[in-house]
Write a structure and sequence with these properties.
Elements (H helix, E strand, L loop, with lengths): L2 H12 L3 E2 L1 H11 L4 H16 L7 E2 L1 H16 L5 E5 L6 E4 L4 E4 H5 L9 H21 L20 E2 L1 H5 L5 E14 L2 E6 L2 E6 L4 E3 L8 E9 L2 E8 L6 H7 L18 H9 L5 E5 L6 H14 L6 E5 L12 H16 L2 H6 L1 E5 L24 H4 L3 E3 L4 E5 L2 E7 L2 H7 L14 H12 L28 E5 L5 E5 L2 E5 L9 E6 L4 E6 L7
Parallel strand pairs: 1-2, 6-7, 9-12, 10-12, 13-14, 14-15, 15-16, 18-19, 19-21
Antiparallel strand pairs: 3-17, 4-5, 7-8, 7-11, 8-9, 11-12, 13-22, 17-18, 20-21, 22-23
Length: about 525
């Protein structure tokens, strides 16, 4: 057999695939002019793409190979998207396949797009998909991963992860069991631990809570004793975090934002070089920009004047954009306020030319009801603003910003207060100095979700729940909240709250992507800084 042909056949066989004769001949003719190193790299790229497909057979046809090569060629020319804003409704939805151990594109599997009006199955899918996402990464962690060969050298701090059905099938007493499941209250005043295999009643009286804000619908690790059909918890904690680089080493193609490359933009060497060289790039984040307050407009003028000599990459202005919720005829007030803002920005031509203005709605801004994700502010409420500021981008809440290799999530919700109100355990009652933002960050990272709360507390469009995922972990998560400003770094991801501009002495945050640093800023009467 020809050496080129043999190397191609061998590579596909190692991944469990068999090439049809036409497909093999096509690849052989294409790769014969290449040297061994180039040929290996090209074949590996094709195999990486094949592994992302939901194939019904291990037999690879020629048309599959041709489509993949076309995608690769298109992707190589599209490796230069430096900046783009994605609303929540344009993201790719994925589902984790437990058999193939891959994240697959949901729309391709079901041959349809998500709908605002999901079926009853859609509601159940929310929690099944969240559980599968958390379970697969927890099961891979060194603390829980089973050894390939059983021996006595297994680390003493390792555990065996059990399912709820394991407990339900146990007739006697079992100690030191660790179960991953979702906290639920199936009966009034009675907590249960639930996973796809069943639900078991919990006794939390002697439980020790470790590191987080524990609410219903959190996916947690529970250690305890199972006896008399009740799981007596001794400790409750969250799953270990997984940095994005670890996630992408397992799933290089897993990218929620629509990106034509076979791998996530976060792995692009070309974009990384551009990102590191552009040291002048900066993102300005302001929340609760109340445009009906004269003092706010005056402070914005100071900010724009200060940055007019060094225009930022973008200004991200986050709602609410009025100090009070809109009622009836007040929609005209909203339009007039944005018209004034447009006039103000127009006074600074360098900002108009070099900076983008991104607007993320708050809970009280006009649009659909208080259900996440919230769509962008409708054009009918903006009047002539877009004519004055053509570069303005009105997007959803939450939204994602891709800057070179970085993923930035922007979310506006008073989420910390909601989680504290619904927490089943209040650590601040025992320790007044408890770091609530740090506990909040640990909770959302562990759950891989921006809003790990019951649906009656934080309603979500069932089929768009994935738009609130934090997996793979974004580089930056902006959780705009009326809570005090903070910056927390965990698992190589930066979380920060710019604070309420109108409530916190006109403070805001500036992010420098080349250095991956966040700077605290405040609007004085002279210049921002």
């Amino acid at each position: 057999m020809n050496s080129v042909k043999a190397s191609i056949v061998s590579a596909f066989n190692m991944h469990g695939y068999t090439l049809r004769s036409e497909a093999l001949r096509f690849l052989q003719e294409r790769f014969e002019p290449l040297d061994d190193t180039q040929r290996h790299e090209e074949v590996q790229k094709i195999l990486d793409h094949v592994n992302t497909q939901n194939l019904s057979s291990s037999m690879i046809e020629k048309d599959i190979i041709e489509n993949i090569i076309n995608s690769l060629e298109t992707a190589s020319s599209d490796d230069g998207i430096l900046f783009k804003v994605y609303d929540a409704f344009s993201l790719h939805r994925y589902t984790y396949n437990t058999d193939s151990k891959k994240f697959l594109n949901w729309a391709l599997l079901h041959d349809k797009s998500p709908s605002l009006h999901g079926s009853s199955d859609s509601k159940a899918d929310i929690f099944i998909e969240r559980y599968k996402m958390v379970h697969q990464r927890t099961a891979r962690h060194k603390v829980f991963a089973a050894p390939v060969i059983h021996n006595s050298s297994r680390p003493s701090n390792s555990y065996s992860l059990k399912a709820v059905e394991h407990l339900l099938g146990t007739s006697g007493r079992e100690k030191n069991v660790v179960v991953l499941g979702m906290l639920t209250q199936l009966k009034e005043g009675q907590f249960f631990l639930e996973d796809p295999t069943g639900a078991v009643r919990l006794n939390l009286k002697k439980a020790v809570y470790k590191g987080g804000l524990f609410t219903e619908n959190n996916i947690v690790l529970v250690e305890g004793v199972y006896e008399d059909k009740i799981f007596h918890a001794t400790a409750i904690g969250f799953c270990p975090p997984e940095p994005a680089e670890t996630t992408l080493s397992y799933f290089p193609n897993f990218c929620l934002t629509p990106y034509s490359s076979i791998n996530s933009h976060r792995l692009s060497a070309k974009l990384k070089i551009v990102e590191e060289r552009n040291t002048d790039a900066m993102f300005v984040f302001m929340s609760d920009v109340w445009l009906d307050q004269l003092k706010v407009l005056q402070k914005l003028q100071v900010v724009f004047a200060g940055y007019s000599q060094i225009p930022p990459t973008c200004f991200v202005l986050i709602g609410n954009f009025l100090s009070l919720p809109i009622v009836g005829s007040e929609s005209k007030v909203f339009e007039e306020c944005f018209s004034q803002l447009g006039t103000l920005i127009s006074d600074f031509p360098t900002l108009l030319k070099h900076s983008r203005f991104i607007f993320v709605p708050g809970p009280n801004d006009p649009g659909l009801p208080h259900i996440l994700p919230r769509p962008a502010i409708p054009p009918a409420f903006l009047g002539d603003f877009c004519k004055k500021v053509p570069s303005a981008i009105f997007t959803s809440n939450p939204c994602r910003i891709q800057y070179c290799t970085q993923d930035i999530v922007v979310f506006r919700e008073d989420i910390i207060s909601k989680m504290c109100r619904n927490s089943i355990y209040a650590p601040w009652e025992k320790d007044e100095k408890v770091d609530v933002p740090n506990l909040f960050v640990k909770t959302v990272i562990a759950n891989g979700h921006l809003v790990p709360l019951p649906l009656n507390v934080a309603p979500i469009y069932w089929e768009y729940d994935y738009s609130l995922w934090l997996y793979p972990l974004p580089d930056v998560v902006v959780c705009a909240d009326k809570f005090d400003p903070y910056t927390v770094t965990s698992a190589n991801s930066i979380f920060f709250n710019p604070g309420s501009l109108s409530r916190s002495n006109f403070s805001f945050k500036v992010y420098f992507p080349s250095a991956r640093e966040v700077e605290d800023s405040e609007i004085t009467d002279d210049i921002p800084g």
